[in-house]
TrEMBL record:
Domain HTH cro/C1-type: 10-53
SMART domains per the UniProt record, alphabetical: HTH_LACI
Gene3D superfamilies from the UniProt entry: 3.40.50.2300, lambda repressor-like DNA-binding domains (1.10.260.40)
SUPFAM superfamilies, A to Z: lambda repressor-like DNA-binding domains (SSF47413), Periplasmic binding protein-like I (SSF53822)
Record protein name field: LacI family transcriptional regulator
Origin: domain of life: Bacteria
Residue ranges of every copy of the HTH lacI-type domain listed in the record: 9-63
InterPro entries: Cro/C1-type_HTH (IPR001387), HTH_LacI (IPR000843), LacI/GalR-like_sensor (IPR046335), Lambda_DNA-bd_dom_sf (IPR010982), Peripla_BP_I (IPR028082)
Any one GO molecular-function label of the UniProt entry: DNA-binding transcription factor activity
Keyword list, A-Z: DNA-binding, Transcription, Transcription regulation
Length: 345
């Protein structure tokens, strides 16, 4: 019985046709270092003509890189994280690597399991947006991880893990100052999930600017869906001394609050102004258009991936980057909902 010939060309077949040893072919596949330029070109031509693809499973068994990185985020349905994932994927492709996306819904158990899945599949490194950076189980696990890790949007405070975040504190101060400069004096801050790093920092920024201006802080951190947003809006506007402006600290909160104002027939910005944190697709097209703090979302995902590959490929850079925090600037997009005149098309 004759042995059936594999339809996939082998490394030995490439070496034979190119007239070189298998070690030379391996060097060409791994970047061509210490290979004569003419030999390099000849082997590459043979690889292309045969359609040879390296056996990744065999390379992994030998201890080579898997050319895969993980991306652990709360949800792919959230435009913020899906845009970050697309930006990170572009960087991974440029490094001939696969991006593996896992979602956690901010559940601590799912988060730990996702990290373990990546470790079992021997990912070369991963980017993590931790739901709870104080989770002792997660912190203990990350201390044992032997591959590079970068956190996105939410740092693991007190740990030597680099983080890429937006300037949440400064962004919220800027938004609050913008409303104060418009003449608003009772500015209510509406949000949910106040323990998340990003929202905690934004609350602090709002609080700092309110205190600096000598105004009263009005905070409702109970919003988690439309119903709670509608209740919060009704409650603050029914108060004896209602707010004349609303600052919402998350795009979903902004959408819920805007819908509640529309349903209740509250005119914006005439009766109450609105300014949201995070831009979203329809913010510029609804009426009135919604003023927002815009985060550099693509830059956040891209920077996190670039930092991860830097740590993976550059030993000195990896040591230098331990525990660093890269903070990217936000910008204010003024539209009609805060009382600004929308830009003319």
């Amino acid at each position: 019985m004759t042995k059936k010939k594999s339809k996939h060309p082998t490394l030995s077949e490439v070496a034979k046709k190119a007239g070189v040893g298998t070690t030379t072919v391996s060097r060409v596949i791994n970047g061509g270092q210490r290979v004569d330029p003419q030999t390099l070109a000849r082997v590459q031509k043979v690889i292309e003509s045969l359609g040879y693809m390296p056996n990744q499973a065999a390379r992994i068994l030998k201890g080579d890189r898997t050319r895969s990185i993980g991306f652990v985020i709360p949800s792919i349905a959230d435009p913020f994280f899906s845009s970050c994932a697309e930006a990170a994927q572009a960087i991974a492709r440029a490094h001939d690597s696969l991006l593996i996306v896992l979602t956690t819904q901010n559940d601590a158990h799912a988060e730990v399991e996702s990290v373990n899945v990546l470790l079992r599949h021997r990912a070369d490194g991963f980017i993590l947006a931790p739901g709870n950076s104080q989770s002792q189980v997660l912190r203990t696990l990350l201390k044992r991880v032997q591959v590079p890790v970068v956190t996105l949007d939410r740092p693991m405070e007190g740990m030597p893990i680099p983080a890429v975040v937006a300037d949440n504190f400064a962004g919220a101060r800027m938004a609050t100052r913008h409303l104060i400069d418009h003449g608003y004096r009772r500015i209510a801050c509406l949000t949910g999930e106040p323990t998340l790093y990003t929202l905690h920092e934004r609350i602090k920024g709002y609080q700092k600017e309110i205190e600096t201006a000598g105004l009263e802080m009005i905070l409702d951190a109970s919003i988690k869906d439309y119903r709670s947003a509608e209740y919060a809006v009704e409650s603050v506007l029914a108060a004896p001394n209602p707010p004349d402006a609303l600052l919402t600290l998350k795009n979903s909160t902004t959408i819920f609050v805007f819908e509640a104002l529309q349903k209740l027939g509250i005119s914006v910005p005439e009766r109450v102004a609105l300014l949201g944190y995070d831009d979203f697709e329809l913010a510029a097209t609804v009426r009135p258009s919604i003023s927002v703090v815009q985060q550099p979302i693509e830059a956040l995902g891209r920077t996190a991936a670039e930092l991860l590959f830097s740590r993976m490929l550059d030993g000195a850079g990896a040591e230098k980057d331990r525990g660093k925090m890269v903070e990217l600037h936000t910008r204010l997009i003024p539209r009609a909902s805060c009382g600004c005149r929308p830009p003319q098309n």
